[in-house]
Amino acid sequence: MIIHRMTHLPDGITPLTHLGVIRVQGDDAIKFLQGQLTQDFALVTGSQARLAAFCSAKGRMQASFIGVVAGPGDVLLVCSRDILAPTLKRLSMFVMRAKAKLSDATAEFKLIGLAGAALVPWIAADTAPWSRAAVGAVNIVRLYDADTQPRALWIAPAAEPEPQGAELSLALWQWGEVRSGVATITAPIVEAFVPQMLNYESVGGVNFKKGCYPGQEVVARSQFRGTLKRRAYIGHTQGEPVVGQEVFQSGDDEQPAGIVVQAAAAPQGGFDAILSLQTAAAEAGNLRLGSSAGAELHLQALPYALLDDI
Fold first, then answer.
1. pLDDT digits (tens, 9 = 90+) for 98-143
2. Which of 7, 75, 179, 280 has the fewest CB atoms within 10 Å, i.e. the most exposed one?
3. What is the pLDDT of residue 2?
4. Which segments of the chain have a pLDDT < 70?
């Protein structure tokens, strides 16, 4: 059963203290990332950013990034702070002779979320997701809406004055992240999914025409052979979801139907969550949180269209 619910993410700004920055610098920065991530950085223009995944050889997502080319040989990768250190270590293993230096640059930058009217001084609300605007040293990336509320990521050197706007709580911002349907990889779900299990091919996170990267064959095979049997959905529940928690169908404790990917308290009560579910289970319904007798999960309409299997 699909339930349509109104959302009320307010206008405002909030520091995104749960995120961090990996900086890639050097003559081979773009070339290096081209061989590691699911998106095409070689063709990025000044008005674009990138959503990308870093996968294992088995095609499982070890990290997800919002990437910005801040200047020649200078790329900023924004990711969840709880996976930054191990991700930096894994990526650095592949540098070898490339002229690229990777570092944890979190302390060098401010990351702030902009919602609604707070976008207006920086980037047009009607620009497409992953559009980028540069205002001096500040980079602004248009994100997917939280339902109909426009959102953006503001990235700037630590010395830059913060943008002005009404205060928005981090909890509400994180709820908006869930409502956008675009998942971020965090520690409990590292290597749990190939990108399509989180709809990354449908939200600009995978380029199927670029060159090789770890796990590319698995990711491509999942798409082109029509074998996608798990997708990301948005659900609402009165129970409290925990990232990595299993989802079951009522009456069946033997086989999990999916996993909680991201969750946040909803202002109207209960919790909203991004769920990676077997498509057959999603269609059948009767989904429960944690066990077959757990809190009921009601699926809601995704805010974007899915790319068809090819």
1. 899 999 999 999 999 999 999 999 999 999 999 999 999 999 999 9
2. 280
3. 47
4. 1-7, 224-227, 309-310
In one-letter notation, the amino acid at residue 292 is: S
